[in-house]
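In response to reviewer comment 3 from the previous cycle, which asked for concrete evidence that the modeling workflow produces usable outputs, we include below a single protein chain processed end to end. The sequence was submitted unchanged, and the resulting C-alpha cells are shown without manual editing.
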Amino acid sequence: METIAESLFGTMEKVSFRRDNLTLAGHLFKPTDFDDTKVYPTLIVHAAVTMVKEQAPDNYARLLVLHDFVVLTFDYASYGESEGSPRNNENVQDKLDDLKAGVSYLQTLPFVGEIGVLGACTSGGNAAYLAADDDRIAAMAAVVPWMYEPALAEPIWGKEVIARNDAKARDARERVAKTGEYLSTQIFTNTPDIEGFMLGAAEYFFDKTRGISVRNWKNEVFWGAWDEWAHVYDPISQAPKIRIPVLVFSTDGALISEQAKKFYDRVKSEKQLVWGRGYHFNFYDVFPEMMQAVDAVVPFMRKHLAPQTVTPKARIAHEPLWRQFINLNPLR
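The workflow returned the following C-alpha cells.
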C-alpha cells in the first residue's frame, strides 16, 4: 500500500483488491492517530452512478476519519482506475459483487472491526442491495438516495424515449459482443440537443471546478447499460429484505425525495429517518450540506458498529462538524 497523504484528514493509501478476475482500485483512509494494534469501526463509502472514488466518496471519507473510522473508497469495475470492460458499464449485480469483494478485502485487515456501508445518490440504492444480501454488514446509511424503481421509467422518460433507448441498448450490447465496438453516451446532459441517460441541471457534473475537474471521471456511460439503469436497478425492492439498522438522510431538495421516504417505510429493521436541508448535488462536495449528512451518519454508525476504537478522540462525544471546521476552507 502506498501512503499518499497525511494531514488533519488522516492518511490515505492506494490499495487494490480482486473481484473475480478483475483488479479494483481503492483508497484506504485511516485516522491521524491510527494504531495498527487497535480495531476500528470501518465504512465502505462508494460512488454514485458513473462516479469515481476521487469525487464524493473521498470527500466523505476525509470527514469520517476525523471521527476514528477507517474508510474504504473504490472505483467500481469498469470505472476510474479499476479494470473491467466495456468501460463505464452500469450493472446492478456487478456492483453488488464489487461491494462484497470490498468487504472481503477489509476483513483481511487486522485493524478492521465491524463494517458499515454509506452511499449517496444511486450508491444509496447499491448500499441497499449490499445490506439485503451480505450479513457481514452491520449497518447501512443512505444520503439523498436515488431510490428508484422501474415503475418510474415511464413518468421520467416517456414511452417514446424508453423505446428508442431500449433499441440503442440492444444494438450496443450486440456490437460489443460481436466486434468489441464500444458505444457510449453521456450519463448526464443539461440540454435536449445532446443525448444522455438523464436530462437535468446536474451542475456538479458540468462545473469545471467540481465534478468535471476530477481527472479519472468521464461524463460517459456504456449505451448497453440503459436496461440496467431504467429496468433493473430497483432498491425499493430490497428494503423489506434488510435486517440491519438503516439510516436514511434526505431533503426536499433531493432528487425523487419521496422515494427515500417510500424506501424507509418499507424497511422492517431498526431504522432512522433524518430530513435536512439542501440541494441534491451539493451533498457531493459542498461543505454545509455534507456536514449535515455526516452529523447524522457519525452517531448512527457509532451506535451500530461495535465501539472498539480506544484512541482518545473516540471517547469524545460527537460534536457537530460545523464547530470543528468553522475556521477551515470549504472543499470547493
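Confidence is low (pLDDT under 50) at residues 309-332. We consider this sufficient to address the reviewer's concern, and the full set will be provided in the supplementary archive.
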